[in-house]
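Hi R.,

Here's the chain you asked about this morning:
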Amino acid sequence: MKALIIGANGQLGRGLAAAVPEGAEAVAPPEAECNLTDPDQVQGWLDRVRPDVVFNAAAYTAVDAAEQDEAAAERVNAAAVGALAEAAVRVGACLVHVSTDFVFDGVLGRPYAPDDAPNPLSVYGRTKLAGERLALTHPRNLVVRTAWVYDETGRNFVRTMLRLMAERDRLAVVADQIGTPTYARDLAAALWALAGQGASGVFHFTNEGVASWYDFAVAIREEGLAAGALKKAAMVVPIGTKDYPTPARRPAFSVLDKSKSHAAIGVGRHWREALREMMGRLPHA
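And here is the predicted structure, written out as tokens:
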């Protein structure tokens, strides 16, 4: 299997490049040479590589900024995905597109299955849902929804918490939004596995277990101290969403039902175990 990775500069793109399975081959051009929103660049790489699979790891992920810049979010998360899906078809490739738990409104009260009706609350969620639908215009394509993705180098919640905990003695973190943290390396491995099986349609993948952002922050403190990434234990205080207003509304409960992925590629590891491994990969750990 030969794959082209779009969005190679991001945390998931790096994870995909690091997780190439035996017998597969991946080409991961830098964003400056293969920008998702530049159809000529993308088509040029598709024509050169002639991949079996195209992984789209690029997205507009600034959730709050999207509320003021809907056109930019739509251009990256929807229009460019539709163009990529058409370009992939022209070279006979399957598109593996990554989406988000933010396509749901968080009011269901149980984990969301792939066929549950989406109802996004934000511009980010709406544009990601539009991108899903454009990707799925072609029945061979695969959409994988995930949540709360982080790695040891990107701009993400884990690294933000580590920085703030080093700078402050006390942090307030939202405790009434529930989801599942996902290590980019584990997500990358799942994408490779699903692509290798020729999966199509909509799947969900995160690490196992559930957490609030507060739970996640407390775990980051504990694992950071154990790994030597933190030198002191900052106090983490739980607060409500109402106490931390943001431009974009977030789902209160966006845990994803992964039964379909479990049946295809097995059950993954708990988010806490994945976080511990990530801490061990930090440069100062």
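One quick note: The two ends are 35 Å apart (CA to CA).

Cheers,
M.
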